[in-house]
Amino acid sequence: MENLRGTNAIVTGASRGIGVYIARALAAEGVNLALAARSVDELEMVRAEMEALGVRSIAIRCDVAKASDRAELVRRTEAELGSIDILVNNAGIERVARFDEALESDILDTLTINLEAPMLLTRAVVPGMLARNRGHVVNIASGAGKVGVAYGTSYCASKHGLVGFTNSLRSEYRGRPVGFSVVCPGFVTDTGMYDRWDKNGIRAPKIAGTSKPEKVAKTVVRCITHNKAEVLVNTPPIRPLVVIANIAPSIVPWMLHRLGYSKVFERVMAADAAAADK
Questions:
Q1: What is the DSSP-derived secondary structure letter of residue 239?
Q2: Separation CA 68–CA 104 (nearest Å)
Q3: What residues act catalytically?
Q4: Which of 61, 82, 160, 264 has the most other CB atoms within 10 Å of its CB?
């Protein structure tokens, strides 16, 4: 999809964080937007900003974990904007905990919101895209979808699932006019998660570095216009580490420990526990 002007997109998790930046980047390309999230007031502010950029935009309260909300999101988008050309599955949650102490409800919520909902939303829109010979789905995964980190078992499982889901779709629909991409950001500044880290004096491991949300958003647009399969958004040293991790997975726990990943997530876990006790 080289020319995006006048197309229609759904962006989930659009009320804050990376979702807002993705919406801005798509609006800059002339894409009309159906913005979905649970936070109505914040979502309305984003909708107004997108309208000011010159595109049509609607705000739809949606809990992607609920089938009825997903169905209403698709219905309203088609009724108010028209056919759905682009779906960006961005909504997601993260829970940091020791696996043996993690709440079963947190595990299920993470898998439902991060993996099940994107799969089912994609299933809802792909038939129409195939019928119109036009469309693209972008799944926002994570660097944790390429390498498993300690204390993030459910999150990593869900993001690994998104990577596999996307790659499977590309194989299944190879040669068809609908594209599928997965974007794997590393540590992204100026977002809710990293802001929470800042407040507690937590920094990403030095070798990992950080990325700006604008870079992630530009990557999403490039994935759509160039039908990219999988893009890791992070500092250059991470790429060879991911390759090594896939070639020699047995060294991953040792490698992440030595690079400081485990210590960072231990601190996040402690900070979250302290906040919960207040």
A1: H
A2: 23
A3: 155
A4: 264
Q: Confirm whether pTM is higher than 0.85.
A: yes
Mean pLDDT, the chain cut into blocks of 10 residues (278 residues total):
94 96 98 97 97 97 98 98 98 93 96 98 98 98 90 96 98 97 89 70 74 94 97 77 81 83 84 73
Helices 192-199 and 261-277 sit at what angle, rounded to 10 degrees? 80
Domain ranges of the chain: 8-277
Return the residue matching tokens 């007031």: 41
Chain-centre distance of CA 224, in angstroms?
Answer: 15
- Residue type for position 122: T
Count other C-beta atoms under 10 Å from residue 116's C-beta: 15
CA gap 268, 278 in Å, rounded: 16
Q: How far apart are the first and last CA of the chain?
A: 49
Beta bridge partners of 32: 8
Element (H, E) at 101: none
Query: What is the C-alpha to C-alpha distance for residues 115 and 157, in angstroms, rounded to an integer?
Result: 9
* 8-277: CATH topology: Rossmann fold (3.40.50)
Q: Which residues contact 251 (CB under 8 A, 6 or more apart)?
A: 244, 245
Q: Return d(Cα 199, Cα 45) in angstroms, integer.
A: 25
Instruction: Say whether 118 sits in a helix, a strand or coil.
Output: helix
Q: Which residue has the tokens 């889901």?
A: 165
Residue 260 falls in which region: left (phi positive, over 0), alpha (psi -120 to 50) or beta? left
Give the Cα-Cα-Cα angle 84, 25, 2 (nearest 5 degrees).
60
Closest CA to 144 of 234, 227, 10, 218: 234
Phi, psi at residue 121, to the nearest 5°? -65, -40
In the chain, the amino acid numbered 85 is D
Q: Token digits for 263?
A: 């210590």
Q: In which residue are the tokens 């300690």 written? A: 150
